[in-house]
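User: Run a structure prediction on this.
Assistant: Running it now.
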Amino acid sequence: MGKSMDGYSTKATMTVGFFLPTFNNLTELKKAIESILPHSVPFVVGVDGSTDGTLEWLQQNHYSFLHHPNFENRGRAATRNLAIELDWDWIIFMDSDMEFTGNLNSFFKNPSNTFIYVGKVHYHNKKNNPWLDYCSSRGVSKSNVGPISFESFATGICAIPRPLFQHLKGFDEQFTSYGGEDLEFAIRAKNHHAPFFKSADLSAISWENKSVENALDELKIFGETGLRIIQKKHPLFDPYRLKSGIPTLFSFLALKIYNNMPGGIRRKLIHYLVYCTVKEGFHSKRI
């Protein structure tokens, strides 16, 4: 079943499968697939121009995959959109550096075909990594199981009804660098009156080990590019509260001291650094 693209039939004749977008992380991808196989559900890998042997390994193991024309690298938004062609009722998106730990039997029982479900991500390295500790305190991570705000939508692990995904035309492929495509998709889904729900049945372990400095570098690029795309498409939406006028002149000090602070203060300092970095990127470049 895991090698098929035909979909998994449940008692309610619902078809569900995993879609794993990947770019040059074959070691983690193998773990992700191993975590899915025991559940006897299909999966398809979306290959975003990988050059690390991913294609060859998938072919050797007869695993299903999709790719861009000429095996191009087009970014996560375009790669996730490859899943639009799959003939499933539900698409479970999971990042390829994660291992699935959820309960599919429970998820299969009563999913609403109008809901978008978001799962819980456990960051394996969060005790020793300030950035992952911060991520664990934000967004859907701090939400209880049940209805959540569209702003908490994240694609690390989530389930989207394929008809809705098709209707919304997937993610905006203008997003080619880090961040923004999930938030922009969530805005359109909200405008389409799709409810968002945190599911206890979807969960995964992430092996990410990104540093605060690396994350801030990516967020600056997001401010320069992705946030401007969101602003142009949704001018009334200010996701990072950049109009609030919070001063950024203390960012240098925050970056210098955050790692020596207790957990709660450290998270607040990192949150401030995120704001400052996105704002800096947003005002430094036009697209």
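The chain has eleven helices and ten strands.
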